[in-house]
Design goal:
alpha+beta, nine-stranded antiparallel sheet, 6 helices, 11 strands
Length: 294
């Protein structure tokens, strides 16, 4: 449709429309214009354009080093205490789009243009083709649409997905050091470690759910740590189960991951599901042991 590359903005004089491809940066509003979004119920068949009743969403293209300027989207200041540290969330979505990896980052309303984060992703050999900023309540969410720079395809390698996750978390710790109080990596690399540590045994929950005749949904919730995603993928592969797609969600100290899995093109039966759960539970809950001690 003709609207696929169009961004909508509202001013006191009414709704304005401009083509995203004509913008080199996120539009700035004059002091006399207020940013207003309308609860449209529109759904496009083309990727990159969607409106929701629940969210105020702005879509913009990103070329080169230009980043989404989230400062132009500031809403009313919340009444939260200045000492309140919001929950940092890093979500890697491999399900929603078959062509790109979507990375969502939120840290309350504290995130800026995130140019350094984009540069760090580019240094990994990735292409950030597009970005969106959405506001829900007092939380700004930035989405990056990522592909491999050399092939233009979505990221599938678990090691690279983990590098993406850790790179974003490292940047959070560097440019928002207060986030270290809410992140597992804050204990080693932050200015202040989390006050409360998670008990791995209590925090770990694993479940295999039905998801049609050809695949199952594996849900894992456990204490976050570096290398967790790679370790989980390896455990799944060791028992010959295939991971078709995944959603990797880091919420503060907790990792909440979902994997669509199958065995020889079919969903997991009850016996294989139990084997998978037992293996994951053992490896995720086991205490750290020095390999040399063997």
């Amino acid at each position: 449709m003709a609207l696929a590359n169009t961004a909508f903005f509202a001013s006191s004089s009414g709704l304005r429309r401009c083509r995203v491809s004509d913008l080199d940066f996120a539009p700035q509003l004059s002091p006399y214009e207020s940013l207003t979004f309308f609860p449209l119920s529109y759904r496009s068949t083309q990727p990159g354009l969607a409106f929701s009743r629940k969210k105020n969403i702005l879509h913009a293209s990103i070329n080169g080093l230009n980043a989404v300027n989230s400062t132009s989207l500031q809403m009313q200041k919340s009444d939260q205490d200045a000492d309140y540290i919001p929950m940092p969330i890093v979500l890697i979505d491999q399900v929603s789009d078959s062509d790109v990896t979507i990375v969502q980052l939120s840290f309350g309303d504290r995130l800026g243009a995130l140019i350094d984060t984009m540069n760090a992703l580019k240094d990994l050999g990735l292409d950030v083709s597009k970005g969106t900023v959405s506001t829900e309540g007092s939380v700004n969410q930035t989405n990056f649409f990522i592909t491999l720079l050399d092939t233009g395809r979505k990221v599938k390698d678990p090691d690279m997905l983990e590098r993406i996750r850790l790179t974003i978390i490292n940047n959070l710790l560097k440019y928002h050091p207060e986030s270290s109080m809410q992140l597992a990596m804050g204990e080693a690399f932050g200015i202040k470690a989390p006050e409360k540590k998670l008990d791995v045994d209590i925090a770990t929950h694993i479940q295999v759910k039905e998801d049609g005749p050809k695949r199952s949904l594996l849900c894992i919730e456990t204490a976050d740590r570096p290398g967790l995603l790679v370790e989980v993928i390896k455990i799944i592969a060791d028992i010959n189960i295939e991971v078709e797609s995944a959603e990797i969600d880091t919420e503060g100290l907790v990792a909440k991951d979902k994997f669509h899995v199958s065995y020889r093109g079919a969903a997991l039966n009850s016996s294989l599901s139990q084997v998978l759960v037992n293996c994951l539970r053992y490896y995720l809950r086991r205490p750290e042991t020095d390999i040399d001690s063997y």
